[in-house]
Amino acid sequence: MIRHTKIARDTAVKARTQAMVTLKALSVTVPDEPREQLQSLPEMAMIARCVGLRPGPVTGIIASAKHALRALARRWLDLNEEVKGHDTLLTSLTKSHAPELVDRFAIGPDTYCGTV
């Protein structure tokens, strides 16, 4: 159960990271209007701003840019919620199946203990 959940979590984290990388890359190549709104914003502020974009009918480059930025920001938020859900389940599973590990210093539900 833990292994399955960990795999699901890890892939969600990877997808969330990719969504942020793509959002940042797109934000520097869009037309001036949306780009100026997003310049130098911290990640979470940029996500909030992009989620709030209203592209309207996609009949021009600014609307298509806003549409794409908003979709990527929403994807990041959805994946972030998915990761939180996996973390909650991993914590519950770890506490119920290996409580002695959770009680130890620096060991948690997402600690990797294998060899490199």
Q: Structural class of the secondary elements?
A: mainly alpha
Q: What gap, in angstroms, lies between the N and C termini?
A: 23 Å
Beta-strand residue percentage? under 5%
Radius of gyration: 19 Å
Average per-residue pLDDT, rounded, comes to 90
Number of strands: 0
Count up the helices.
5
Main sheet: strands, sense, barrel: none
Order of helices and strands: HHHHH
Which regions are unreliable across 5 or more consecutive residues at pLDDT < 50?
Answer: none
- Globally, the shape reads elongated
Put the structure in a nutshell.
The protein has 5 helices and no strands.
Summarize the structure in words:
- The protein is mostly helical and 116 residues long.
- The chain is 72% helix and 0% strand.
- The longest helix is centred in the C-terminal third of the chain and has 37 residues, at 61-97.
- The mean pLDDT is 90.
